[in-house]
Amino acid sequence: MSEGGLVLDMRAGAASRRLQMKLVSPGGGAAFADVPGGALWEEVLHWAVSNHGLAPASWTDYLRLTVGGTLSNGGVSGQSFRYGPQVSNVAELEVVTGEGECRVCSHSAHPDLFFAVLGGLGQFGVITRARIPLSPAPQTVKWARVVYASFAEYAADAEWLVTRPAESAFDYVEGFAFVRSDDPVNGWPSVPIPAGARFDPSLLLAGESGPLLYCLEVALYQHPHQQPDDVDERMREMMRRLKYVRGLEYAADVRYVEFLSRVNRVEEEARRSGSWAAPHPWLNLFVSARDIADFDRAVLKGMLADGVDGPMLIYPMLKSK
């Protein structure tokens, strides 16, 4: 914050937000969404899928954030290892600079401004419009979670998955640490999908784990042109190679929009319980692969062994993305 600074309400006029979104195809080629900087990603999702059967490739986990907000930060999630973060999936921006000038910038037009604004935390201008590449939206998603007692095995499997070639890779890879207890927020009740599935702690061998366990979460998209049996077999083949605790695997087939909206449901439950109103700061850290085992030992197991009353996400990304 700066003395005498301004706070801009980029949600002004939200009632007409969907009307301001445009599908553009310069030269009749690839499709893009022109969307206001104050639009929520949730609004972009429903507009693009419902009206055009298209979708951006890269998302945040929580969709009730503005387009300009995440593009000013990074926009990282479980798709980033494959498609890059949201800042790597932008074709063009309209920016209001500190001098009050409105400029359109891209890789080729005012590139210094374009790359300064993306991930620039609002220090170089305000994003008022973004042009986002679109591709055909998947129809359904095969969503799975598996549990590990060993962090070394968890990390090795996660790193192996994000380095697979595209034709044999998942579309989404994330994961989280959770407390080895029946605490409804911090413990194993937070793992099973769909709701109501049971977690059997007897499958965990005594002495096999410390205070924390680890859940690897993956998803494979199914497009209309794909045969369901082929997608099922690909899913089974990739899961077969993982070293998770057998019997502690959970899976669900869900619609694409439902999968991307999964954190919204968590928010709604937290609002009903009142916990959403409590302070819950979010922190993202990038830790090198060579240091991640020490981070697990010193921070997760050493400092956060009782949980944080919320998710402790931990998953790999590729520096090349």
UniProtKB/TrEMBL annotation:
<dbReference type="InterPro" id="IPR050432">
    <property type="entry name" value="FAD-linked_Oxidoreductases_BP"/>
</dbReference>
<dbReference type="InterPro" id="IPR015345">
    <property type="entry name" value="Cytokinin_DH_FAD/cytokin-bd"/>
</dbReference>
<dbReference type="InterPro" id="IPR036318">
    <property type="entry name" value="FAD-bd_PCMH-like_sf"/>
</dbReference>
<dbReference type="Pfam" id="PF09265">
    <property type="entry name" value="Cytokin-bind"/>
</dbReference>
<dbReference type="GO" id="GO:0019139">
    <property type="term" value="F:cytokinin dehydrogenase activity"/>
</dbReference>
<dbReference type="InterPro" id="IPR016164">
    <property type="entry name" value="FAD-linked_Oxase-like_C"/>
</dbReference>
<dbReference type="GO" id="GO:0071949">
    <property type="term" value="F:FAD binding"/>
</dbReference>
<dbReference type="Pfam" id="PF01565">
    <property type="entry name" value="FAD_binding_4"/>
</dbReference>
<feature type="domain" description="FAD-binding PCMH-type">
    <location>
        <begin position="1"/>
        <end position="137"/>
    </location>
</feature>
<dbReference type="InterPro" id="IPR016170">
    <property type="entry name" value="Cytok_DH_C_sf"/>
</dbReference>
<keyword id="KW-0285">Flavoprotein</keyword>
<keyword id="KW-0560">Oxidoreductase</keyword>
<protein>
    <recommendedName>
        <fullName>cytokinin dehydrogenase</fullName>
        <ecNumber>1.5.99.12</ecNumber>
    </recommendedName>
</protein>
<dbReference type="GO" id="GO:0009690">
    <property type="term" value="P:cytokinin metabolic process"/>
</dbReference>
<comment type="similarity">
    <text>Belongs to the oxygen-dependent FAD-linked oxidoreductase family.</text>
</comment>
<dbReference type="InterPro" id="IPR016166">
    <property type="entry name" value="FAD-bd_PCMH"/>
</dbReference>
<comment type="subunit">
    <text>Monomer.</text>
</comment>
<dbReference type="InterPro" id="IPR016169">
    <property type="entry name" value="FAD-bd_PCMH_sub2"/>
</dbReference>
<dbReference type="InterPro" id="IPR006094">
    <property type="entry name" value="Oxid_FAD_bind_N"/>
</dbReference>
<keyword id="KW-0274">FAD</keyword>
